[in-house]
Amino acid sequence: MSFWQLDAPPEAPALIGPEPAQCISYGELARLADDFVAALPACGTKRLGFILCQNDVASVAAYLGALRSGDCVALLPARISAEALAGLVTRYAPDWIVMPEEPHGMDLSGHVSTPWLGKTLRTRPAASRTIFADTALLLSTSGSTGSPKMVRLSYANLSTNAESIASFLGINSAERAITSLPIHYSYGLSVLNSHLARGAAILLTDEAVTTKPFWTLFREAGATSLAGVPFTWQMLQRLRIERMDLPSLRTLTQAGGKLAPELIRHFAQISSDRGWRFIVMYGQTEATARIAWLPPERLANKLGAIGIAIPGGAISLDASGELIYRGPNVMLGYAETAADLALGDVQGGVLATGDLARIDEDGVVWLTGRSKRIAKVFGNRVNLDEVEALLESRMQLDSAAIAGDDKLLVAIASDAPDAAAQALALLREALGVHPSGLDVRGLNALPLTASGKKDYPAVQVALAARRPAPDDRRAPQRRRGPRPAPPAH
Fold first, then answer.
1. Of the candidates 394, 13, 337, 21, the residue with the CA atom closest to the CA atom of residue 175
2. What is the model's pTM?
3. List of domains in the chain
């Protein structure tokens, strides 16, 4: 049975919130999901909905309701810019939108508004279009720049990946996971899905791991696991998690980008000392979340590896060394316009990941590089070509973007005193990541190859010799409030 059917004892806790005594049982969550479906206008066709997600009951209930109703739903960050949201609404013409009460400065006069669990449900007559019957979910590939490119995931993609993750992590009904990542991000969503698949509970919070309310909920509700991207673990090293009183914690999981070997070693040792499991994983949104995992007992001898294929999947290398993944969790394909929603399964269960890899004599996989221009910044997947296009269109700046170690490196062809700082401010706003993950520097001119193309190796050398924009070096501050949200994996 699929996780959205909520096949658990009705009285079992499903969602636990930060408010005193807030606990939604599986029976109550099922009723809320069905109430959401009932709130939508009667319609005989498959519709498209947008949910501007927060880690709260309303977002989860609307998501599950959409899956139960057979509609296709796109999960987007609640803090998406008005410009990016307007572009997506224009391109995809959603039939309904769940959003905070404020309308993001958009003209939605054609929609009817009704209250929904402290949010607003905006609906309009269903558009005349075709959506492939098996398409369940759309997740952004690079929502940080407002890209309209979406990953199309099927009901089978979602259910099989949730089951696979629950299997290799050993999730059971006694587990309690906390939303240390946003649910519109494929890694954060996989935590929700895999725990619902086993009748476990999820602790809902939008607080960052650097805040006191996060850890108060963690301890009082008895969280048993903690998921994080590299930035999370950098912060937890500074916070000295090993000194915290966390008697219920049993499992730590890491994905969303490469974690430095010294940090892996650090958390592996802490986990050994405290009786925790530290599990390194690898995945992509195009595979619904997870592709590989490294069993914790192999961590010491395979430090830096991504591990073995998840249950139900298979990994191989093509002639160029690119990692090829096969499994029932591989997406149907991409969408860039509303018309693309009519497309069926164009992948056939096969995904060329864009990562170069090697497989050792024990069958364990190690990544060796990238074959595509994609960077990971605190778990955000950022298309480097889109970053360059953004600077060109907004600031008329020629630029070269390079993937660093959990950092985006950008050279701009300008020595104007304020140009680098202005470009940094633009990227901070557009990407929604902490400035410590951005390194913007000005050059007199971008190095070019003999054929006139950008010489990225030469750009990287030139960047090392120049000072970053002043704002770039600020250390992350401990703060209260929503974390920088990684939108895509």
1. 13
2. 0.81
3. 3-368 (3.40.50.12780), 374-469 (3.30.300.30)
